């Protein structure tokens, strides 16, 4: 009894240390990387919660992730408020992964899951953003853990918990909905009677329906739908390219940080999956957890690297479970495992240090480098322009955000005394209107598109300053136009 108590105490401390390590690694310099366009959108939605619109613009399937952001009061320190919400959910996901790892391989499983999760540059990068993909994935891990509990100990409370966590995964991002198949397969493959399994699944389904009902009712009353979210799926006119999607998955797994370090991490991940299959013979569990990934590869149109994040963490948790078993079965190879683990940690630390100090220098997949560093969706240039506006433009001169409305609202999260007037269509009409009463009007222009032909104003327009994005990316330009 005392020995079991001591092991439980050690397991608890290992888990707590892992959670603290995840927290510190994600929180350091959390606002160094400028806001991505979608992060600004989520912050805007969080502000709408405070204005009484909890379901403002949810057609993209991100339904409640902004509620947690609103809890941290994004009116103050918006970048930190948006991103700390993701860190908090990542902690919940890792806790679920640790619980799964401990179930299959004890303390070795706790260490292995923590090693794979904390030191994956892919997870590290996105768990420091205000995006919903890793949040949905964290709830999917908890859904699998509750499904395993339900399969082992069927009860109404376990079924309700399973349904609630599954619903939360899909409510944070609808692309997590395929985990319903994962949960169903885990419950159906349990050793209980068929009647008990069906009863459990019915309770799970009713719980999911109950939690989704307010959202569906809202959409019905507003004649809305999830058109944007479902637009990523293959249809009769557009077909998914499996080979291209596999290449994109490879970019996501190997494109963050040093290729050698990413390859070592991938080897450890695959070793854990194979070990779980060989030593634990949990073919049905791996198959169930792989279903969402398989569906994404088969039916998604041009997925971005971050989209795979929704479906990979549950597999990371299971891989850690298998890797812990492999360590226990091959203790004589402990020096080899220690060396590989050390190299994985060193690679992760190097990636983290770059993220803390010089995020524009991060090694990212080409798609993410464009999205987060060089193109208009990146916050570089835009953040620097907003910070300089008070010293470059007089306080009485209006400033139009000549850019996409989402970019304009995102820019205002960096306002330090001067805010942009956000409009659709580049602001040409507003510029003409303001010039009728103002001696001068300024424009912060971010292509594409500016929407205002500056040649029309000839000598009245002057370029004040350009704010370049790293690596030759598109620049943000500050123009001022005088009244004729």
Annotate the secondary structure layout.
Elements: H1 2-27, H2 37-50, H3 65-71, H4 78-118, H5 121-126, H6 133-152, H7 156-172, H8 179-188, H9 194-221, H10 227-230, H11 242-254, H12 259-279, H13 283-299, H14 313-329, H15 334-357, H16 366-374, H17 382-392, E1 399-402, H18 405-412, E2 421-422, H19 428-435, E3 440-445, E4 461-469, E5 473-482
Parallel strand pairs: 1-2, 1-3
Antiparallel strand pairs: 3-5, 4-5
Structure description:
With 484 residues, the protein is α/β, with parallel strands linked by helices. It is built from 19 helices and five strands. Strands 2-1-3-5-4 form a five-stranded mixed beta sheet, sandwiched between helices. α18 links the parallel β1 and β2. α3 packs across α4 and α6 runs parallel beside α8. The protein is globular. The termini are far apart. The model has no long low-confidence stretch (mean pLDDT 92).
Question: Which key phrases capture this entry?
Answer:
single chain, alpha/beta, five-stranded mixed beta sheet, 19 helices, 5 strands
Number of strands: 5
Biggest sheet strand order reads 2-1-3-5-4
Average predicted local confidence, pLDDT: 92
What's the total helix number? 19
Element order, helices and strands? HHHHHHHHHHHHHHHHHEHEHEEE
Q: What level of helicity do the residues show?
A: 55-70%
Low-confidence stretches: none
Query: Gap between N and C termini, in Å?
Result: 89 Å
Using only C-alpha atoms, the radius of gyration works out to 25 Å
- Which structural category fits the helices and strands? alpha/beta
**Largest beta-sheet details:** 5 strands, mixed
Strand content: 5-15%
Shape: globular
